[in-house]
Amino acid sequence: MSFNTRNTVLSWARPAMLCGALVALSACSDPVDDGADMSADDMGLRERCSVNEVFNAETGECEPDFPDMGGSDLGDMTADEDMTEEDMSMMPEDMGPDLTIDPNCMDTVVYRDADLDGRGVDDEDTNQTLCLAFTQDPPEGFARTAGDCNDNDSSVKPGQMEVCDEKDNDCDGNVNQGIVCEFFVHSREELYRIDPFQLTISFEGIIDTPDPLLDIDTHPDGRLFGISANSLFVYEYNTNSDLWEWTEVGSLNESLQGANGLAIDRFGEAFATARNEIYSIDLETGRASSPGVLMGDVYSSGDCVINKGNSLFMTSKDTASGSDRADELVSINAGNNTTSVVGRTNHQRIYGLTAAWGRLYGVTSGAELIEIDQATGASTLLKKFNNVSTFYGAASSPSR
Ligand SMILES: [Ca+2]
Ligand SMILES: [Ca+2]
Ligand SMILES: [Ca+2]
Ligand SMILES: [Ca+2]
After folding, report:
1. Domain shared by 124 and 187, yes or no
2. Residue 156: nearest ligand to its CA?
3. Do 113 and 219 have their domain in common?
4. Residue numbers of the domain that contains 21
5. What does the alpha-carbon distance between residue 359 and residue 324 come to, in Å, rounded to a whole number?
6. Which ligand is nearest to the CA of 113?
7. Nearest CA to 327 among 341, 313, 346?
8. For 241-269, how does the pLDDT look when each residue is reduced to its tens digit (9 = 90+)?
9. Average model confidence (pLDDT) for the chain?
10. Number of folded domains that form the chain
11. Which of 63, 136, 161, 374 is deepest in the core (most CB within 10 A)?
12. pLDDT, average across residues 160-172
């Protein structure tokens, strides 16, 4: 047999009170009641009382027990819609959590997550139903949520930030939505924007400089600069004409005749390459200075470029007349003018180079867009633009 604490206390108190009431009529031989005088019937009735009841020795019945724990637990009110608030306030206090499920385990559908990025693929052939605790991780290779549109690429999943690449990073069905993934290229008289992921080209404007721009590049602050055979220009917005225009910054040094490459590094330092020479360019005045001869058998084919890691490259052509060899990708140490050949590309007349989103792109005189492997120099044709006659140069994207 077992009694809860409250019933045990009452079993002592009630007979003692009865003894007190009878003491005037007869002597009470047992003033301290030890419970031994409870009748067998009382005991049997007490056993029938639940934990929320108390035995009334006077009526011999179990009665509701309402411990005052500071208010009713309305969260437990599931039953009678006819109950009044007063009725509810009389409900016994529930001192524990109101669990409706097994706290240790419940059936959970988990989804195959091959790339371990936390999002799986909803496929009835690979879905599994496992019994998992509420906070329990599914086994490796499975996820609690589906929606991964590429389960072989952990950089692609819902909620991922969309970045400039050929992927739909956030699985919303669109590649590079909401971000601009373009760099500038130009021909003799026209400025364009190329999106190397969508492989599209759009016309930006006419280049009306006195002599043609031979190359362009982007300053880290976003300004676009260009060089002609004689001058440095900047592309800026003219509030008077309400147009973007090429404005001359200043005259280049005469010795720089023949420059065909312009590169601006991430600190805003500018370089130009011409033939087998390299120059520093002051972007505030346009003056070229510190000409140096590049060591090695190199000859600028069209452009130089500085990538995200601040490494300077140029493409070099074979100077033998009639050569049909592809250009080489050459790494330049601008500190001592030494060069090293990275490797031969697969394209000739690479007139423009651009470092963009961690990649190296080139554009050719044949209006081709190519991607160049910075480790080997090997190049791959991405697209030939049939609506453009030629490319003269290209500018890196502000975020290289
Ligand atoms: Ca996944
Ligand atoms: Ca993925
Ligand atoms: Ca997307
Ligand atoms: Ca993307």
Report:
1. no
2. 2
3. no
4. 5-67
5. 26
6. 1
7. 346
8. 999 999 999 998 766 777 889 999 989 99
9. 81
10. 3
11. 374
12. 96
